[in-house]
Write a structure and sequence with these properties.
5-stranded parallel beta sheet; 5 strands; 55% helix
């Protein structure tokens, strides 16, 4: 059953996913296991994307398929405290207008059990700080930069969040094409993820 769910997500079977997930539910598979399978599958999709075996359209369809699949089990997850991880604030840093990667991360993280607050693109550091303060139940912040020229803005954003004394409340995740694990460590981020699938898995880890 779980193999069928994984296969449907990976191959982007938008029209069939709801029926396949419902079959798994009817067969007695716990909703949490179905969700974990879909998240893990998106990790596989993310790996393929990293290796250029698939491209943005395929990744997007897989993420949308997962979102549709999650909608079937959402009522069952509502009673499971482990499926709700609070809020996840997301944005692309000041000076950067890229949003495809950010949007994919938002989709994935939402599917994993967060309420996503998307600040959009070209977001100044102060706006991240304000959003975190306005949402005390936010546990994780995702900061994206897609240009080498905006890596400095990412550093400024992380510094601003720390300077505002918000590190006891939130963990900071960073990502984007020019970002490396070394750069993430250098600027004091809590985590770096290379793609949307691993971003969702890491967000869940950080929120617990």
């Amino acid at each position: 059953m779980l193999n069928a769910v994984a296969s449907a997500v990976e191959s982007g079977k938008l029209k069939k996913i709801e029926g396949i997930v419902q079959e798994a539910v009817d067969a007695g598979v716990p909703a949490g296991e179905i969700l974990d399978t879909m998240i893990a599958t998106m990790g596989v999709v993310g790996d393929k994307f990293q290796r250029n075996e698939i491209f943005v359209p395929e990744m997007l369809v897989a993420a949308l398929t997962m979102k549709k699949g999650v909608s079937v089990i959402q009522p069952l997850l509502a009673g499971d405290a482990g499926a709700k991880y609070g809020k996840f604030i997301l944005g692309t840093v000041a000076g950067d207008l890229h949003d495809i990667g950010k949007n994919l991360v938002g989709l994935m993280v939402e599917s994993a059990g967060f309420e996503v607050i998307d600040l959009g693109v070209d977001v100044p550091a102060e706006k991240f700080v304000e959003a975190i303060k306005a949402n005390p139940d936010c546990k994780v912040v995702g900061v994206s930069a897609l240009l080498t020229t905006t890596m400095e803005a990412m550093k400024v954003t992380v510094e601003a969040i720390k300077a505002a004394g918000l590190c006891s409340q939130v963990k900071i995740m960073v990502g984007g094409a020019p970002i490396t694990p070394e750069f993430a460590a250098e600027i004091g981020a809590d985590a770096y993820t290379p793609d949307a699938g691993s971003a969702a898995q890491k967000a869940v880890e950080l929120a617990q």
